């Protein structure tokens, strides 16, 4: 755990240093946020705030993880093994080749989100859902195939049941659903200053602890690297935000969270640990279904769910802080269930 926490701290420092020049570059290139016309009026002041801030998370996480993977190769040399023994570490504790799967998820979905963000700031509305969703399915399928056939993952863990249950090829569609669903859930959560970053960091902390308790040190290290970068992003995204995450961050983090959950085998607990993103997604689904069923009536004042509470009179910071408290509680419950 010492390595994981240290690397998380290093990730925070790298991302914080990378933040100001990224903000200047985004402003210089006019990468500003558009605000929904039908959204809360208080959000109109945010028009033009730099978006694509997820690059502050994605680039340090990917760079640091790849450097660690290179360090693993060096650790396999005689000199490297001797040095690590003196430090009390081993090459496997630093990183593992399998960690390249969540890195690939972050890069692939981050690239898709970057295209969406860039198109949205160049006078358009970004990628249409009917174009973006099939691409997400393709990317999710590729990752699911690697997890199943490349890493041999094919089971699910149920709390209180000692043995994991082998579900065979049913693992593939479930994995695709988790990866794509998680990517879109975090994307829907990203609507208030600090909300998506703090909720995602909390979820990664929970799965980092679960990975550590399973002995997957490399996966725990990766999870805390992501946590450190998210915390650095929150330094600039705290209300009033200097920049927004954008799809490049929300989709990358969501898909990566889904992959990490699958790698721990505790993916059944994802709706518990990521309770807020799940609730945000369900609010959108229920709102649309109810609107069509009643031919124009609304179940919530606005969806996703955080806007509903804003229109009830909660301030933006109240929504974020209260949602975060719920996220901490749900993460604690999730980790506890993983131990049963």
Quick summary of this structure?
With 340 residues, the protein is mainly alpha-helical.
Q: Count of helical segments?
A: 14
Compute the number of structural domains: 1
Order of helices and strands: HHHHHHEEHHHHHHHH
**Which residues sit in consecutive blocks of at least 5 with pLDDT less than 50?**
90-95
Sheet with most strands: strand arrangement: 1-2
Strand count: 2
Query: Strand content of the residues, in percent?
Result: under 5%
Radius of gyration: 20 Å
Oligomer: single chain
Features:
340 residues, 2 strands, mainly alpha, two-stranded antiparallel ribbon, globular, 14 helices
What does this structure look like?
This protein is mainly alpha-helical and 340 residues long. It has one domain (2-339). It contains 14 helices and 2 strands; from the N terminus they run ααααααββαααααααα. The chain has helices spanning 2-28, 55-75, 78-87, 91-94, 100-121, 129-150, 171-189, 195-213, 217-237, 246-264, 270-273, 275-293, 305-311, 316-339; strands at residues 155-156, 165-166. A two-stranded antiparallel ribbon has the order 1-2. Strand 1 (155-156) and strand 2 form a beta hairpin. Helix 2 runs antiparallel to helix 9 and helix 5 (100-121) runs antiparallel to helix 6. It starts with a helix and ends with a helix. Belongs to the glycosyltransferase 4 family. MraY subfamily.
Furnish the topology, listing elements before pairings.
Layout: H1 2-28, H2 55-75, H3 78-87, H4 91-94, H5 100-121, H6 129-150, E1 155-156, E2 165-166, H7 171-189, H8 195-213, H9 217-237, H10 246-264, H11 270-273, H12 275-293, H13 305-311, H14 316-339
Binding site for Mg(2+): 187, 247
EC number: 2.7.8.13
Cofactor: Mg(2+)
């Amino acid at each position: 755990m010492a390595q994981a926490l240290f690397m998380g701290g290093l990730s925070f420092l790298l991302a914080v240093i990378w933040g100001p020049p990224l903000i200047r570059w985004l402003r210089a290139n006019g990468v500003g946020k558009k605000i929904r016309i039908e959204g809360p009026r208080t959000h109109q002041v945010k028009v033009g705030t730099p978006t694509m801030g997820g690059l502050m998370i994605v680039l340090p996480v990917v760079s640091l993880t790849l450097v660690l993977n290179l360090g693993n190769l060096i650790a396999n040399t005689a000199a490297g093994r001797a040095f690590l023994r003196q430090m009390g570490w081993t090459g496997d504790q630093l990183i593992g080749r399998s960690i390249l799967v969540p890195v690939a998820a972050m890069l692939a979905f981050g690239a898709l989100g970057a295209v969406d963000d860039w198109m949205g700031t160049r006078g358009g509305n970004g990628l249409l859902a009917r174009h973006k969703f099939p691409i997400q399915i393709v990317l999710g399928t590729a990752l699911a195939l690697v997890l199943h056939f490349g890493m041999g993952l094919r089971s699910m863990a149920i709390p209180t049941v000692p043995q994991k249950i082998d579900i065979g090829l049913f693992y593939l569609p479930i994995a695709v659903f988790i990866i794509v669903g998680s990517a879109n859930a975090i994307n829907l959560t990203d609507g208030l200053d600090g909300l998506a970053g703090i909720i995602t960091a909390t979820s990664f902390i929970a799965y980092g602890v679960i990975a550590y308790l399973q002995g997957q040190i490399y996966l725990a290290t990766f999870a805390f690297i992501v946590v450190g970068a998210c915390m650095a992003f929150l330094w600039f995204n705290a209300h009033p935000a200097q920049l927004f995450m954008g799809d490049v961050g929300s989709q990358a983090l969501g898909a990566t969270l889904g992959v990490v959950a699958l790698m721990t085998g505790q993916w059944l607990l994802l709706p518990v640990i990521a309770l807020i993103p799940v609730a945000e997604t369900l609010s959108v689904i229920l709102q649309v279904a109810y609107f069509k069923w009643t031919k124009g009536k609304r179940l919530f004042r606005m969806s996703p769910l955080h806007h509903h509470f804003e229109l009830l009179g909660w301030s933006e910071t109240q929504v974020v802080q209260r949602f975060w408290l719920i996220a901490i509680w749900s993460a604690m419950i999730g980790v506890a269930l993983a131990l049963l």
